[in-house]
From TrEMBL:
This is ECF transporter S component. Keywords: Membrane, Transmembrane, Transmembrane helix. Coiled coil: none annotated. Pfam families: ECF-ribofla_trS.
């Protein structure tokens, strides 16, 4: 049990590190695009729904705190947690099943941030943020699919989907 949580914590730290490395502010929405989805999707595909939720929620919330986007923290915790959980639900499927899970998880993320943006800043800002969110989640999926496959082949089975 401890190894599982230590692994999730390390993946959260790694996801935060890659997310902080690339932060592209989105003018007008008081938000940004990062590589967070790559870390969340990789964790979800390797460790299933629990790992996806843990890494998604913590890295999503923490990046906002660290980056100074405090108003997004609760939304990011919920949205990225749900995104990771959904992607993880499909982690043991063949490739097309994993792709389907990433699509569903991406819809959760884009729709979640659309609704949060609409609530906080209004419809025009929410609509303007959609392209950035789509790019972020697409890049995350394109990175995570092959990376998780490579890691799955070299990591010990006892830590995968535990």
């Amino acid at each position: 049990m401890t190894k599982k949580y230590v692994t999730y914590a390390m993946m959260t730290a790694l996801t935060l590190a890659i997310s902080m490395w690339v932060i592209i502010p989105i003018p007008g929405s008081n938000g940004f695009v990062s590589l967070i989805d790559a870390g969340i999707f990789t964790s979800a595909l390797l460790f299933g729904p629990a790992g996806g939720f843990f890494v998604g929620a913590l890295s999503g919330g923490l990046i906002d705190v660290i980056s100074g986007y405090f108003q997004w923290t609760l939304f990011s915790f919920i949205i990225h947690g749900a995104q990771g959980w959904m992607a993880g639900k499909f982690s043991n499927q063949p490739i097309w099943g994993r792709i389907t899970g990433l699509i569903f998880a991406s819809v959760i993320m884009v729709l979640g941030y659309f609704l949060a943006s609409w609530f906080m800043y209004g419809l025009p800002v929410a609509l303007a943020a959609i392209p950035g969110d789509l790019i972020q989640t697409l890049v995350g999926a394109v990175i995570a699919l092959p990376l998780s496959q490579i890691l799955r082949s070299i990591l010990p089975p006892r830590i995968l989907n535990s």
